[in-house]
Structures are given as structure tokens and as C-alpha cells.
Amino acid sequence: QASPPEEKTKTLEKAGVLHRTKTVDKGRRLRKKHWSASWTVLEGGVLTFFKDSKASAAGGLRQPPKLSTPEYTVELRGASLSWAPKDKSSRKNVLELRSRDGSEYLIQHDSEAIIGTWHKAIGEGIQELSAD
Ligand code: I3S
Description:
single chain; alpha+beta; eight-stranded antiparallel sheet; 8 strands; 37% strand; globular; binds (1S,3S,4S)-1,3,4-triphospho-MYO-inositol
């Protein structure tokens, strides 16, 4: 039996450890960047960053941590994603995600291949939601 259409968007699309920092909170630029490695889940049009965890950074995909409280959840509907301009960070492979409510996040991974898969997955998530 086919599952109802709304079930489709609840499927886990991607999960892994990324470096991230929030730079703007609902239009208000934050004074300092606090980069941290965190377990990140893309599911049902929502990107969730879990609390910083040494275990999540070390374990990677093989060993998902006991899921702690989400620290940030970003609704992809109405969001936009681009490569961060160089003045936003000295790190390589940095994506900038802007949410509809005017918050901004930098997302980074040293591996170009890994950040590329996130770029694609988040970008597609945004596309799908804007098509509704
Ligand atoms: O935009 P900034 O101030 O160059 O960002 C850097 C700071 O957040 C820095 O923290 P401290 O001021 O406590 O050292 C971070 O360690 C750096 O990673 C930030 O710069 P990058 O270029 O890595 O995003």
C-alpha cells in the first residue's frame, strides 16, 4: 500500500556532523561567532542542529550520539542557500543559510565532497518547498 503523500517529506534525507555557527538572529547580527561541530539532520523540510557534542564530532556517521536537545531548527521553506562570501569566514567550504525569519547560519566542512552533498540536499529541500 502506497504511503500518503505527506509521509514522503518526513523521510530522513541526510544526517552527519558539520561545523556551524549562527551569525544573525531574526535580523540581529550576533557579536561573536561560535563555531561548533554538531550532529545535523535534514528531515521533512527542516534542518536541525543538535547541541555541540564531542561524541558527535568523534563518532561521525558510524556512531550517532544520543540525541540531545536540538539547538537550532531551521525551516527550509522560504530559506536561501549560497556559498558564503570570503569576508564572512576565513574557513574553506562555507555555506550560508538564511531563513525566512531573517536568521543566518554558516555551515562548514573541511571536505569539499561532504559539503557538496549538503549543498545539494539543502538546496533541493528549499526548491521542493518553494514549488508547493
Ligand atoms: O568573524 P571573525 O571574528 O573573524 O570570526 C572568528 C571568531 O569567531 C573566532 O573566535 P575568537 O574571536 O574567540 O577567536 C573564531 O575562532 C574564528 O573561527 C572566527 O573566524 P572564522 O574565519 O574561522 O569564521
